[in-house]
Known about the structure:
The chain is of the alpha/beta class. It has one domain (12-287): Arginase, Chain A, CATH 3.40.800. 32% of the residues lie in helices and 18% in strands. The chain has helices spanning 47-55, 85-94, 109-119, 148-153, 168-176, 185-191, 197-202, 235-248, 267-287, and strands at 27-32, 61-62, 67-68, 74-76, 98-103, 123-128, 158-163, 180-184, 207-213, 250-257. The strands form two sheets. An eight-stranded parallel β-sheet has the order 4-1-5-10-9-6-7-8, with helices on both faces. β2 (61-62) and β3 (67-68) form a beta hairpin.
Amino acid sequence: MEVPARELPFAFGGLEPPLSDYETARFVVLPVPYEGTVSYQKGTARGPHAVIDASRNMELYDEVLGFETSEVGIHTLPEKVAERVADAAAQVLADKKVMAMIGGEHSITLGAVRAAKESFDELCVLQLDAHADLREEYDGSRYSHACVMKRCLEIAPVTQVGIRALSKPEAELIETEPNVTTYFAHELRRAGLAPVHDEILSTLTDRVYLTVDIDVFDPAFVPGTGTPEPGGLSWDEVTGLLGALAREKQIVAFDVVEVMPLEGNVISEFLAAKLIYRTMGLIAHAADWLG
């Protein structure tokens, strides 16, 4: 399902000029309402609109970081269809801004990773996800959301965190492919995520494309996603890892995908909006953009 490109009626965080001006903004939000290959529940095409709408109800002061991330500027682009992701991402990166893409289904990540690789030679991908997404093809397509990390792996090394659902061929690939490193949720549950932060970071290059499938969270925290899997991570576990990542590596771009809004329940899109804003804050704090 493609949604035609259009102007959103509001900006991320409800920001207005000058904080929302493209020329001075450090962060650029790219909404991509696409769900062309979803294989279970549909609705992720409505995710970007719902997440940005939810972001208008956040407090812009981050009590953990101690500042308003919005002070460095956040611009929201018009919604893009999937085939224009690479071009839009390339322009944002060329303008020396950090792109935050909101999906839509996970297949949109591939175009953004391609654009990032053109800008940064030593690039890797950090994937937070319930699913390995390493299939060679799914439902007759090599570009399904279930194959997106296999395609990304053809561009850059991939480190996966939170995985708890995969096929036998994917498990065999993880065992034999040197450019993919996987941290399974059940292993993290035994050892804890914080004690392996340094180990995870050691698998990454200095420049990182971060992709967060919202189903990395346990469904108790995020019920609104197309393929929920029990045994997921918590808010503190995910944001703790992102804090360590931002301190040690350069996050050149990131995305949050697979939010599926539920009627009468805004928990999932609100968490996604807060996650995007917190990630921006962590990047801004690490880069000392706030002076």
